[in-house]
């Protein structure tokens, strides 16, 4: 006879497991009517976390340093100088990490573009505060393109149950194209180079890997062979 909880071997006369303390139920040993038919559930169940309470605490912890930064900056400099960057960074971090916690099942198709919108607004504030000229010609198209690509991939993975290899293959090819867009905007905004210099390498790697994934997707025998060998 063995313990139903820890599996240790027991003598027929034992009524309690000497290792874990679980009561022994032997079919040949008579039980009183008050005994339960199965061992009681003695596992410790953690109490459910109050989601709203945690979110309120995190919100207060985010607002407190932001307000302190603004008040200190206003007191010392008579205006908002450096505190805008600090408060904006705290707000951005709040949107990226705490805001989804308010929802039981946050939809990434909604929150991913919301996160990139918050990033774009923060970059716009930095551009306006520093008197720069790089937001419309560099930051906005780069962040927007990356946000559109990631949102598209997340939406396809969430709502399309098949064709993952096509999705990742197309995403790699698009990522290579984004590298060329990044270098083009760098040259246009900051005059780093006159022609394309380094973006051909990530473009070639993205196209090569993406085409390989698409070939694997359209060739079932190759896909099954890779699955057997590498569990892919």
Short description:
The protein has about 230 residues and is mainly alpha-helical.
Describe the protein.
The protein is mainly α and 232 residues long. Among the domains are: 1-30; 162-232. 64% of the residues lie in helices and 0% in strands. It is built from 7 helices and no strands. It has helices spanning 51-77, 83-98, 108-130, 135-159, 164-190, 200-218, 220-230. Helix 1 (51-77) packs antiparallel against helix 2 and helix 3 (108-130) packs antiparallel against helix 4 (135-159). It starts with 50 loop residues before the first helix and ends with a helix.
Topology:
Layout: H1 51-77, H2 83-98, H3 108-130, H4 135-159, H5 164-190, H6 200-218, H7 220-230
Radius of gyration computed on alpha carbons: 30 Å
Helix count, DSSP H or I runs of 4 or more residues = 7
What is the number of strand segments?
0
The SSE order reads: HHHHHHH
Strand % is: under 5%
Shape summary: flat
Distance between the termini: 43 Å
Query: By helix and strand content, what is the structural category?
Result: mainly alpha
User: Residue share in helices?
Assistant: 55-70%
Tell me about the largest β-sheet: none
Mean pLDDT: 87
Low-confidence stretches: none
